[in-house]
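Run log // design_07
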C-alpha cells in the first residue's frame, strides 16, 4: 500500500516562502513521477485541482505551468522517498490545499493535502 503524506503548509504573509514536503511509504518514490496539485477555495472535485509542478522518475525532469514558473520549484530529497515543493514570493491567490500525487504505470496515489494560506 502506497501512502503519501504532505506537510509544511501553514499561514504565510504575502511575499513569504514555504517549503512543502511529500513523504512516501510503502514504495520508493524515486521510481515514480511526482506532481504537486492545488485545490483552491470554492472547488471540491479532484478534476478541479490545478497542476503546479511535476518531476519525472527518469532524469528528474521538471515541469511548471506558466502561472507559477519562476516561483515554484520541485525537487527530490537525497533520500529516495521525499519530494519537496518550494514556493517563493507567495501571493494571496496561492491559498489552497496542496496535494502530491505519485504516478507510475497507470497507477495514481494522492496524499491527503496540506493547507497553505497566504494572508496578512
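design_07 sequence
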Amino acid at each position: 500500500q502506497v501512502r503519501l503524506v504532505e506537510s509544511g503548509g501553514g499561514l504565510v504573509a504575502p511575499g513569504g516562502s514555504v517549503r512543502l514536503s511529500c513523504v512516501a511509504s510503502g514504495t520508493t518514490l524515486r521510481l515514480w513521477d511526482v506532481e504537486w496539485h492545488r485545490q483552491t477555495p470554492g472547488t471540491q472535485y479532484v478534476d478541479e485541482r490545478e497542476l503546479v509542478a511535476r518531476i519525472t522518475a527518469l532524469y528528474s525532469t521538471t515541469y511548471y505551468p506558466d502561472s507559477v514558473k519562476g516561483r515554484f520549484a520541485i525537487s527530490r530529497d537525497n533520500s529516495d522517498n521525499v519530494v519537496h515543493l518550494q514556493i517563493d514570493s507567495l501571493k494571496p491567490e496561492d491559498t489552497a490545499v496542496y496535494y502530491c500525487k505519485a504516478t507510475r504505470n497507470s497507477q495514481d496515489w494522492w496524499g491527503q493535502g496540506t493547507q497553505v494560506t497566504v494572508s496578512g
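The chain has no helices and eleven strands.
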